[in-house]
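Section 3.1: Structural characterization of target chains.
Under the original work plan, the team committed to producing a structural model for every single-chain target entering the pipeline before any wet-lab resources were allocated. The record below documents one such target. The sequence was received from the expression subgroup and is listed exactly as submitted; it comprises 495 residues.
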Amino acid sequence: MFPADPPLHPDACYLALKTRDARFDGSFFTGVTSTGIYCRPVCKVRVPRRENCRFFAHAAQAESAGFRPCLRCRPELAPQALRWSMQDASAVLAQQAARLLDEPEAWGGESPSAEKLAQRLGISDRHLRRIFEAQLGVSPLQYLQTRRLLSAKQLLADTRLPVTQVALASGFASVRRFNSAFTAHYGLSPSALRRAGASRDASCEVRLGFRPPYDVDAMLGFFRTRAIAGIESVGERRLARTLAVDAGGKRHQGWIAADFDEPHCQVVLRVSESLHGVLPLVIRRLRAALDLDADPHAINARLHGSFPLGDGLRVPGTFSGYELAVRAVLGQQITVAAARTLAQRLVQRFGTPVETPDPALRLLFPAPEVLAAAEGDALGQLGIVRQRQAAIVAIARAVSAGKVALHPGADVAATTAALKELPGIGDWTAQYIAMRALRWPDAFPAGDVALHKALGVQQAKQPAREAEAASQAWKPWRSYAVVRAWSALSQGATT
């Protein structure tokens, strides 16, 4: 859950701005009164004079105050500021509302609105507006408008999509409304914003920021040991894979490649032309998969004492919650290598061929409707035991029917409860899915055997209860504590 935004200290913000400190990227934005532009603290332009600077916690606040986004540092590419707490109900409600507006997949193809948002949260429109403005300083509509405009700006800058398609993909109901809003906010037309040469390459390149420290070796090592040939390729500093995204009643298929640029605290993302129409969604999935929005300062303040060697560790996410759920079932009570072998067989048997420039990337993970129709001994022939066969088919059917949504915008309690009602899905699997697919930072698979060993409670009469009791000190960052405990165990360290 989220607390209210902490008050910004202008002098501290200006010091971070002067030093271009990447640890504060996305934590605040600087509006420069002499230019009318707002920037990230890592922007490479000349540092403005202190008296010309105003500081904002959100991009929407800067735009509401009349500032335009910088075309050089591009505020839409900054890490999001995710602040979690277990208190302050008003702040929890406001930030949950903002989180839903930030997650396009949470709306199932619908266009979000304040009325729909209030209905989903179980409150009145008036209460939503009052809480939102009190906590975030802008109205829900202003926040949503900023999100849409920044998404459109990103598509204009990084793809060669027609302006009409950009408008619709960004959530605007018509091109006329898009042009009007864009010109009013940014002082120039959408076509004028387009960078020279942005439309010449079939694959766009986007630079996404993250806050240091970041243990790149650990993150890529995690994905490397689980990589499935044909859909994933993990190099020394690169992660590439095939990807399918359903949006607007259409399935977009293609490939992505992400390279770490550690000196600049960035990930350089390249996306196939076939995925340009869903670029904002692809970026959201990459940020979740690599945990680029984590705030190490807040997490380490709670966990460093127990895990002093894990300050740069992140929680690996996924590019598809459904895919992660299937792979989690395949990995129940067996080794990582054995689970990867089963996943490899599943992809070879049911995966969909896709064309890419990389011969190592040639298949898409089996679609939900494909595995939902798997009958007889089709799964058993791959070496998958009967109980897990039933679980995989049940997950595929629940996802394809829309009964279970496995993305960061989903309700955690309701989703984990629905998962545990499916055959073969217990608390461990549900918590693991919550940790990686739902991006819940306080997930805790208390029954995990490796976790028991790392915490030294494996000999206890009730190790799960002992682990749960020990974890209370790590709230609300228990997902990160789990990753650090696993890492400490693999390194032979003690917790």
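The CA atoms of residues 330 and 342 lie 7 Å apart.
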